[in-house]
Amino acid sequence: MAEQGGGGEREAEGIVWREEARRFETPDGEAFLEYRLPSPAVMDVVHTYVPRSKRGRGLAARLCDAAFAHARGRGMRLVPTCTYVSDTYLPRNPAWNDLVCKGPGAMPKPSSM
């Protein structure tokens, strides 16, 4: 069960969802996963970052776990624009593949402004 944390909602152990910033992050904000919402039912994961000093601890995977669990719990689909997600995380975690938008035109086109 998610709990409210300082400025965000806790999604997974040690990971905070900051809805206003459209990102999941560690409590110190140094490691994060950024996303955008091209539609209310689609989360486009655009960037995952872990500082060099914190690499090798599984933080990127925990950020992805939180984002994918968040999407599943809200009936959303994901677009893995971030190469870490598409090339590393998903091949290691195929149970999440049912959430991934696939094929040409799978992601809604951004609205023109």
Keywords:
113 residues, alpha+beta, 7-stranded mixed beta sheet, 2 helices
Which whole number gives the mean pLDDT? 86
Structural class: alpha+beta
Question: Beta-sheet strand percentage?
Answer: 25-35%
Radius of gyration: 14 Å
The number of E-state strands comes to 7
N- to C-terminal distance = 38 Å
Shape: globular
The stretches of 5 or more residues where confidence is low (pLDDT under 50) are 1-7, 108-113
Per-chain topology:
Layout: E1 3-5, E2 8-12, E3 15-18, E4 23-25, E5 32-39, E6 42-49, H1 59-73, E7 77-80, H2 83-92
Parallel strand pairs: 6-7
Antiparallel strand pairs: 1-2, 2-3, 3-4, 4-5, 5-6
Explained architecture:
With 113 residues, the chain is of the alpha+beta class. It is built from two helices and seven strands, in the order E-E-E-E-E-E-H-E-H. It has helices at 59-73, 83-92; strands at residues 3-5, 8-12, 15-18, 23-25, 32-39, 42-49, 77-80. A seven-stranded mixed β-sheet has the order 1-2-3-4-5-6-7. Strand 1 (3-5) and strand 2 (8-12) form a beta hairpin. The longest helix has 15 residues, at 59-73. The protein is globular. The termini are far apart. 31% of the residues are buried.
Question: What can be said about this structure in brief?
Answer:
This protein is 22% helix and 31% strand.
